[in-house]
Amino acid sequence: MPILTRRSVSRYTLGAVSATPCPKESRRAKKERAQRILAALEQHYPGAASELAHRNPFELLVATVLSAQATDASVNKATPALFARYPDAHALAQATPEEVAPFIRSIGLYRSKARNLVALAQKLVEKHGGEVPQDKQALMRLPGVGWKTATVVLGAAFGVPGIAVDTHLMRLSRRLCFSQAKDPEQIGAELESYFPREKWVFTHHALILHGRYVCTARKPACERCPIYAYCPSKGAW
Hints:
Endonuclease Iii, domain 2, Endonuclease III, domain 1, 2 domains, HhH-GPD_domain, glycosidase
């Protein structure tokens, strides 16, 4: 899943809707529209979950770190061999970045990611007994882990409510007129204010799938969009 930074925000990321003004809408009306969108997403993407292959919180954490500026598909091709060699934090903590790098060579920024993974594993062993902590601040103190990665791991591995924002959610939040912000954390907070807390994790995953396969950056498939009726930007393409 691509990590979003302010520098990565572009017309390609946001889509042509960045030039389309949002209609005036009360907060109550936005929340009601969000409920209708959520109902449609639940029908269209039942069981929406991370597409990163993993069997436990440790594997999810490693895969999410690797997914920065990379596709889930590329990560999923690399991790089976990586996890076979380093099945847990204790094993990975004993490796060197040079030993890890060949396993993830096909992924962008693999050298720096190899360094982060080894350092991350060492800190997991040193500070948390080799287990992935269920605390966001503790996660964010790990090398290579920022707000988005921590939010993703807490939600997918432990069910902790949160909406992490990647390029897809940035684009959809603007097209759906829920947020015009550029900061991922601010966008996440605004999205969370419209959707019910118990549905935040599902909303995160469902919107990613929708942005990945339907509401794409360049040519959104509006003709098969399940939330077309509730999109203020419909017809912009």
